[in-house]
Amino acid sequence: xxTARNLSKRFxxxxxxxxxxxxxxxxxxxxxxxxxxxxxxTLLRLCAGLAAxxxxxxxxxxxxxxxxxxxxxxxVYGELTAxxxxxxxxxLYRIPERRERCGAVLERFGLWRERNERAASFSRxxxxxxxxxxxxxxxxxxxxxxxPFDGLDAExxxxxxxxxxxxxxxxxxxxxxxxxxxATRASARLALx
Amino acid sequence: xxxxxxxxxxxxxxxxxxxxGIALALFWAPEDADQGFSQKIFYVHVPIALTAYACFGFGAxxxxxxxxxxxxxxxxxxxxxxxxxxxxxxxxxxxGSIWAKISWGHWWTWGERQLVLFLILFLFYSxxxxxxxxxxxxxxxxxxxxxxxxxxxxxxxxxxLAVRIAGTILHPTIFTHEGANLPGxxxxxxxxxxxxxxxxxxxLYRVELAGKRVDASLxxxxxxxx
Amino acid sequence: MTGYAADVAALARKDxxxxxxxxxxxxxxxxxxxxxxxxxxxxxxxxxxxxxxxGLLWIAIVFTALLxxxxxxxxxxxxxxxxxxxxxxxxxxxxxxxKTIGVTAFLVLAELVALPAFALFFHAIGWELVAAVALADxxxxxxxxxxxxxxxxSRARELLLPLLFLPLAIxxxxxxxxxxxxxxxxxxxxxxGLYDAVFAILSWASFEYVVTE
Lengths: 193, 226, 213
Prior knowledge:
Chain A has five helices and eight strands. By secondary structure, chain A is α/β, with parallel strands linked by helices.
């Protein structure tokens, strides 16, 4: 589903990725590990189409609407409620039965009670859950997750693990600091230097 | 022809055309009936103005190519062309100002449509450089610069129209006379001067572009070795 | 509603909703424009013509617009949200259109206060001025939204937006003031329409390239 050849990304004078070859088959679950600054986030952004490679090529076999991207930032509007944020994304992603789906995904990540609260009032963990709601809302075929367990409490981590390990056979590229939590689910690992 | 031979030929042609054109303008072309000798600056001022337009247009074309094909070299070419355009634009303002002082006694006049138009464009393209300097090098900077360059080329006719419907008519508007009223000798001298200034712009463009390309290669080499 | 129109509506609605909740941009614009008009009164010597006053109104409008535009992509910038919108499958030009509609709405609301204030402080205004202001709003919003997105990508964003915006605003001021004071406003109004058409189409078409890599 994702094919990268000689992929390089440079920011000004700094080389972040260098001559990377990558092959993620459909249904594959790849963990990306590496120290800070090794390019995990950059790789995910390149796969999502948010950045263009400096050289080399990358091919992602999925439409924009089929990609679920979890970034470092939750990508939600602070002044809108959780439900309103998901409603906006729901409209942009053209999901059917929007109201029901938004409600369902909020329940899946344990945010149903806070659905009418402004996102700005959320704690770090709740924001991460809301970001996960946004990511999974449109039932994406390809998941690009940047440190998905960051900020989650035990309950949140459990819900996320359920989502990733139990529900459906999606393709996923997950950047993480502790690969052990997903070791059993993963089909391959990529270590960036 | 190799590049350096082409550049040398171009430089020589430039020198020839410019010297020839200016000589013709000063000594051979007749003096203007109302303005006298001071009108001669027209042979320098208008070609410089037209060359500046040409540079901006060329820069916009390269910008369009960049957006079309995403090849990085067009960014450098577009930037250099616009740089040339700004230099010639500045020269237009300076020569126009001199002409205004000689003809009407003021260093600046808002009735001079050409000058006002160039002032607007000068401000616009100066902001181009501010835009470039404030974004990190990379695809973002290339694309934003390219879009801005395209806006510039749309601004030229719009501003021209604006200044036209707004201003008082003070400019001698030689150009509207030109087709009918510019006598043969003046026209010839003018065309040679125009060709000379365009050739000058082309030479400077190639020289600067080559220099920038060397800079870029040097940087890449340094990185590879680091 | 077709997909594109629905996207634009969703985005415009989002901006209006955000402003309703945070209430920071519009009140600032209203206060600014009225303050500016008061400053202008003191800046004009007693024997100034009504034409000079009209000219100053247009300055107030341009700078109030600048104030609003600086905030246009503020939320997206502060929270990295432009990524979220760019990731969505909608056409990127829909982001531009939705935002432009929002900015135009803010400008119109600001002028609903500014024009009566001007008529109160200075002199009565005619229909030509109102028509010119309406046309100018569209052009300012169109080009301003695009430039705000450009400036958002840069380091010196608050400084950069005015520099990018003002040269492009000059034709609008010419058209607007011309329509307000000339004996034949039709040509100036027509010019404003042309400006709007040219730059709206250009902004709509090139927005994609400004927000993606």
